Amino acid sequence: MSIKVLRPGLLTSIQDLGRYGYQKHGVIVSGAMDSYSLRLANLLVGNKENQAVLEITLVGPALLIEKDILLAITGGNLSPTVGGQPIPMDRPVFLRKGCILQFGARKSGCRSYLAIAGGYNISEVMGSASTYLRAGLGGFEGRALQTDDVLQLKDPQGKSASLLRQLASSSSASSYVSTKWFLGKSHIPQEGEPVKIRVMRGRQFEQFSGDSKDVFWNCPFQVSSQSDRMGYRLSGAGAVLKLAEPLEMISEAVSLGTVQVPPDGNPIILLADRQTVGGYPKIAQVALVDVAVVAQLKPGSKICFQEISLQKAESLYLIREQEIQALQRSIQLKMQ
Prior knowledge:
With 336 residues, this protein is an alpha+beta fold. 19% of the residues lie in helices and 27% in strands.
């Protein structure tokens, strides 16, 4: 059985944790913009962390559910509803066959992640089901979802199937029912004040002028409407960033969260669909734990940069991974 797309939304695509091992051939990693939310969504329904999910950007889809399913929605709040009733997020939810899951007004964040117990029946390309939109590679026919697309689903197994049956038996005439337990902690940035993003100095940091360094650390930047999955363009700091002296660079490897500065002086944070190499000077590198926060910022949001050491960034990463492992154990116990 399956899910039918009645309305695709602004940009809804199949993503997992990415396509690794092919950058030397010029094939980008791609994958979820907010991999943390993707992992949580999968854990909540008993999937493997790397299972493909739907990444939903700003304006969500309308989906006809053609079989009983167990799902979880994490990340930004795009007002998911069934029959006009809000669907709770950050927890397992049972939906009955025949209901329509719709997304409405954005309340927080920028991207939602929709995981289905058992997963979507999507073929992998180069070891990943992620959609590389520019190349038409992977995902559902290599593109974002469109009206009348039909997503085939895999059957849930083990504890996921058991939880689905348990919730189904307690739902009576209701279109959906959710667990009472849920994830309580959120990384979604609050609206209003500039969001602090922790970074380390980039390879070419010292080549920038003193004034540019001061601007980078002390002035807020705004996410431009020209931003996309490849990178977030920033502007509005009051002054553009400039090198102290002209610099001839040979293109070199870039990574998730690299902050490049092109000739116009407005920095770009490289994200999921980043190129494999870059020739612009790198002023900073976003700590991996904060990439998920960046991915949840909408155009017009403001950020400011806070310097941390490599050791601190590594410590934050290890703490995050320990939290995820603890959550996985807790969820497995709740599913018994």
